[in-house]
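Task card 7
Instruction: Convert sequence to structure tokens.
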Amino acid sequence: MLDRIDGLHHITSLARDAAANNAFFTGLLGLRRVKKTVNFDAPDVYHVYYGDAVGSPGTVMTYFPFPRAGRGTRGAGEAGRVSFSVPAGSLDAWQRRLSEAGVAGLRRGESFGAETLDFEGPDGEALALVEEEDARAPWREGPVSGEIAIRGFHATRLVLREAEGIEALLRFMGFAEDGREGAVSRHALPGGGPGRIVEIETRPDAPPARQGAGSVHHVAFSVADRAAQAAVRDALVAEGYDITPPIDRDYFWAVYFRAPGGVLFEVATAEPGFDRDEDVAHLGEALKLPAQHEHLRPALERHLAPVDP
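Output:
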């Protein structure tokens, strides 16, 4: 069993409109945009990152906004819900805020003993806020009061036809089942806590998900550094998983593999971080390009629609 996984690192989804996506996550949810770059594999598309003040692992939601993307279809084989941690007693304020903004799918509930507020993102993605104790500091310079602001991820929920394979993988990665409600099981790293939880919803009759705007592209888990990543990669290869070599994503190193049931997993390093090419005070302001795409800057700046109003 691995002991190098520290929790979630980031979760990356697909969107249709970069400006609408940015307005939702920064203007409505109050996260900080910590990086504005491009999809390294498709540089004519943005890659935007939202999180806490510095983009700490476990706080960062990222998007690839494809301007002509059709909406994804929910089903099995995807990360079907992303939940964020908020302070106890804050959901009434959040419900008013989201309702006044016309957000779809608002629904209060309870999950594993915690109060929850489910809602939809701008492309129909399933999101939720979960009340819990969370010592992480929020981004305090956005439009949401620090008293209720999002602290980071609570969990991600994988929707699969069967759970045996993914449960075995999660156990190997250091997670242990610590609760079950109906078709949903919860798996946490030792000590549990926000950002260290993966939920599995088993739906044997669900149709296969079709990826598009509003779909999660991949779920990334955090390790401290490249040495820890190498140890995790070697162990997973020994277990028979087909994993990419380490790939330099400028702000972290990444390896990717397909988990049982079809969800794309990533293992990403906590270093070097989002301030490697921008001062912390100005994170997410300028368009940053990887060295291999810097020669495309003039064309990309003409092609990419503005993210900010």
